[in-house]
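Sorry, any thoughts here?
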Amino acid sequence: MEIYTKRFIENIEEQLTLLHPPQEPQVIKRHCTDEIWDTPAPITGDTTPRLIINQYSNSPAALKAQQSAPQAINTLTVNLTPPQADIFNKTCPYPLFVGGYASGKSFVLITTALHDLLSHRGANIAVYNPTYDLNRLNLEPRFLDALDNLGIPYTYNKSSAIIKVHGYGDIIFRSMDNPLKIIAYQVFRSYVDEIDTLTKIKATQVWEKIIARNRQSLYLPDGTLAPNRVTAYSTPESFNFTYATWGKEQKIGYEYVQAATQSNPHLPPAYIENLTNSYPAGLVKAYLQGEWCNLTQGTVYPYFTRETCHKSNMVRRGEPLHIGMDFNKYHMAGVVFNERLEIVDEFVDYSDTPAMCVAIKAKYPGHTITIYPDASGAQSRSTDATKSDISILQGYGFKVKARKANPRIDDRVVSVNLLFQNNELWVDTKACPNLTEALEQLVYDDNGVPDKKSGLDHVIDALGYRIAWDKMAAQPAFAHYKAGGTISTFF
């Protein structure tokens, strides 16, 4: 087996020197029964299989010239776009290729899997899809076609969904619909397709099962152990499993490549234009640009995006700071503003008010700090039955500005949206990852109020208490909203 991995060469004639002189292709017929298909080994001519992988190949003219050029027998030539080549070359344990429609996810999955199978004799590889039907309709026939083009004999057992590649290893196809059935086998490498279509809980269970199967030991020619790897390929589905696992924060061993639909040079000219005209903005961002975004209708803060509302904000030495604060046992939240209505920091998931106070004092010594708390703190007692939360704040030396009752939720939402819409409120998204995520993901529930079951509302409430203190009534459009009727005026 010979495998060529090389950057794309614009000169097609120079590229073809890597191949044997063109020969008449040998046709291999597939003998099929109800359940098992066998292919005989080629017996004449130069039968060395060759998988040629041209990387970073996105010149349509060069690709067209290559496709019309004669091919050597038992040779499969593939051309990878820049994003496909990037994921192909990843060496971390858990890479992700997250891409828009038609960005070539299945194509690079098959290419990488074949490369790994043919480069490591005896390797068993696993291919996962949300259902067996998706494997049978998409990936299984494409693997069979690739093996036919390479002239490599195999036995395909349709009922067990396993291709035994003679002289190499097995390709095992499995469904992700039942995590409990991902058992009783071990593989060298795995390829996971469209895991984001599962619920986050189910995807997490499936992922844990898959990586546990990935333990077959194979050795390289120099005697070192070849690394196992699990690669995922998916269209982004809102802020689901792939965002939580790869996009939210960088984890050791987890790296990703994003690919837009436009990266595929083989698409019909009108394909992208037609989808753009047919989809709302959120779907375009996810399904054409391959970006994580909120696909749920009724986003609470539609005027916030991390691209347009971000500002890297520095806290000036000794300047007064203002902190909106929400009281929740074990989930206390604080949002820190400077004097210029710029959000510079956040405090989340503190157990109680004293713990929050200690953290603030430690991080911002020498600053005058004013707290704008949840109005319920005048009566609530998180730790000491004799002291309210607000009296605890005052005991730590903070100024406190508290209302007798919290402003209405919809009033706070409108006020914050107006500030974002008018470019008057900025967030340091790097310093405030939890607030940023909440602003992007919080949606309305079936009753038309921000969804509290998501757990995203605590830091949002802290933001709203600060804004509501001196901004809500001052907005000229706010009175229009109150008189004019519905939330749809602004959302």
About this structure: The CA atoms of residues 333 and 458 lie 6 Å apart. The chain has two domains: 2-284, 321-489. The radius of gyration is 29 Å.
